[in-house]
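2024-03-11 09:14:02 DEBUG pipeline.ingest accepted 1 chain
2024-03-11 09:14:02 DEBUG pipeline.ingest length=169
2024-03-11 09:14:03 DEBUG pipeline.predict start
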Amino acid sequence: MTANLLCHCPKLFCCGIARSGAYNRTLTPFGFQSEERELWDIPHIYTSMSPFMNAQKIESPLLLIHGQEDSNSGTFPEQSERFFRALQGLGKKSKLVLLPKESHNYRARESILHSLAETHEWLSKHSITKQTIHQQQTKPSKVILSLYVLGSFALLSLFFVRTKFSKHS
C-alpha cells in the first residue's frame, strides 16, 4: 500500500515505510487479495497495481523492511529485494532492511526493536520537521500522526505532508 501510494501520489508524502510488501504483482499471476482474474486476462491491472512497474514515479524516500524467511506466497523476500534494486537503479532514495529468521510478521524482540529503530531514524531523517517548516517559512497543509505498533512496542511519529505549502507573507 505504501509503495503504491508513493507511485500514484508522488507529491503527497515526504517519505514512506513499507513492510513485507508485494511490489510486483506479475510475480503472483493467479490472483491477489480479492482479485481472482489472472495476469493474462488483465495485464493492465497487474501492471498498474505493481509499484515495481511504476518505480520511476516515486519521488519520496522509501524504507523497505522485510523478513528474510517470509513464507507468504505473495510477499516472498525477493519482492523487496527486486524492488529495492529497481529503486537504486533509478537513483531513488531507498533503504532495504532484511530481518534474519523472520517471516511475514516479525516476532523476535530484536527484530521488533530493529524495525522501530530503523523507522524512527528514517522518519527523523526524511520527514518534514517543525524546524524545516520555520526555515522555509512554510506551513503544512496537513499534519499526519502515525502510530506504529509492532508486537508490544509502539512508536509514535508526527510528520507533515509536503504538498500545498503556502509562503507566509
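2024-03-11 09:14:41 DEBUG pipeline.report The two ends are 37 Å apart (CA to CA).
2024-03-11 09:14:41 DEBUG pipeline.predict end
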